[in-house]
């Protein structure tokens, strides 16, 4: 037997010995062009699937490398990648590399919108990257504010951190102020922040920017139709820090002044380290106190978040656990009154820099229409209290034979509670609305207005003649500012959602094909409750709450408001809805290598979205004397309560999206590409929640159809880099409804939906030029022609009654809120310990409505920053935004009357009312910030 076993033993021994001797080691160093070691550079042997990361001295080691030929791929954000063939033949190898600056990150690997990681230059999509340096140059105002650095992206952050708008390439029609991210996906580490949207519930509520973000990848249009959930307009992916080979991180203290001596304080941190046995962790977050950019008597924002990830790395892939705890309160600014349609000028003592017109602080207890035995606490200083508790895991595994499996899954619990004001319109004391909106049956006679805080009488009037068209009469020498009250309401909303989403993909690499297929799953259980009451407030730059009574001689005193100034409890608005949303999709994409220089991408995505839920019908609570049974308190006479009837909905939207692109690499530094995409946008939940008031939801919404064509070029030279893209986007079946107020019954309603079409043609570009060492210029922007090719608006004539309604045709007009020109120009200097930048942001003229009746003027904002490295670890920075205090106007809400909307300001209306006031939203004024940064 030994005679037979000996040969096998010798062969096995030989193989083991050979294998042992064929295991080699590759070590090396990586520096930048100034000779500085680079940390956290990724080094990969592409055929062996072995990798390493440089330490803080720029050194790396790869063990257990087999004999043969391989390709070493080196990448680091902000530097050009290196792809070099190497030969290993039973010896250790020592290598050294110098990485050149990659001015536009064209040699950086991107993962957003592509089904396989690829260098941006080889991608046939329009992708931009903001690295950590660009993020640190941004004032910490919020997500949308940062994204205005992205070419071709329109952002409106005039309201603050939330209630923002973001869209690209004229795909904008349904991106209203309260659903401003309608067409795009805001993501964290590859999954959406929120699965659903509806009025006052968007992803920006649950996203905050801090040091935990390493970079942002922004995809405009194109493959987003097939790469993510129901977001054909683009993807903005905030990617967190990953593996650190050594203990290190950043701590940043910020303090600043803004507006009229309002203060901001913030602390940010992010720390990472290895934990042994190839385990790594990152953790960080922020906390802030912010008085706001405008004048209000309370802290505008306070709170923060904590984020973490734990990563297990191995030769064939990784496993990552991650989470986020967000608990944050912020508010949002409404508009400011102006006159002069041709050159808007602040009116009624307000100004574009400091006026906020938000309610002052008070504590009210307003009966809950769902259960009249309970009440909701209301304090407008709370703003919106957002909570998001999320946990997920992500794993990537090479399973052999060029197969790779990836799964990213996240569960989150979300809660957004709004306690703020809605609208701030002028309501004349000569307008019967000022009294009847209280809910009182006949509030005519002597009306007394008192300061709700001090109790002192501010004005006493006789309104007996208003129904005949006669003006009011002041009965004492005291008057109310501007002879008016503010048309506003207490806006209370409870929005909750439990969500789970999952992305799974299976990738197979062949000689000339790279095929990825998989599925996305998303489930959301959502509930919404909205209740609005009227509030009596002075109409002046720093409003005061008014306690209002009707005091006719010889008759009982009738309270038109409670002691806080709140009136018509729960009578202006009532929505109580719930919904279950299921989004199921499957996708496939093939990256076909036609030749060494030509790659073709073809992808499909089939999506099925189901909305199932209900909406309560409601009616005023009827009882003599109102809820409290007291006929002398009129403010609780009209509370909206459920009738017990529900309008159910259960609709499924199925559609197929396609995207195909081709990329031709001219050489290692230049490429051209083209892409055709046909995507779809299913309705969001606001279709059911907003558009059906006490009527059956008897039909599903329309799926908007989006066609996008683009072609572009990318070049990456030593001193100059640029990308440019010519595009055409067409959006069809756009459902439009207006927010209206009926003064006859004091109700708010949405008009019937009409379907329209828009088309935008344009050129977007991004470029960087370094004329000499330590100095560079950046220039990006968009030139476009946005058209409302087919556009009809439903005119309700100011009442729910349909007898006088008509449809107005605005086809051929310019698409509103889309500038023909928008750009960013900046210059940056960095040498030794000193750095500085200067930025110019230009926003072109935009029409404020599809009627093209009012045009928002162009404006420029200039930002300045400088930094100094005190020591190796400590640095200081100063950031100033809106340096010259531009009074640019970012938004338009229409005529200055309660319930008005932008579409009502037609050319005919403006011609007939040349001296009328209207509501605009100015950009936020100058803010200066001092930052102290400690890196280790």
From TrEMBL:
Keyword Ion transport belongs to the record: yes
Superkingdom field: Bacteria
Ion transport in keyword set: yes
Domain TonB-dependent receptor plug, residue spans: 121-235
InterPro entries linked: Beta-barrel_TonB (IPR000531), Beta-barrel_TonB_sf (IPR036942), CarboxyPept-like_regulatory (IPR008969), Plug_dom (IPR012910), Plug_dom_sf (IPR037066), TonB-dep_rcpt-like (IPR039426)
Membrane disposition: Multi-pass membrane protein
Keyword annotations: Cell outer membrane, Ion transport, Iron, Iron transport, Membrane, Receptor, Signal, TonB box, Transmembrane, Transmembrane beta strand, Transport
Domain TonB-dependent receptor-like beta-barrel span(s) in chain numbering: 332-883
UniProt subcellular location: Cell outer membrane
Predominant localisation class: membrane
Family label: Belongs to the TonB-dependent receptor family.
Protein name as annotated: TonB-dependent receptor
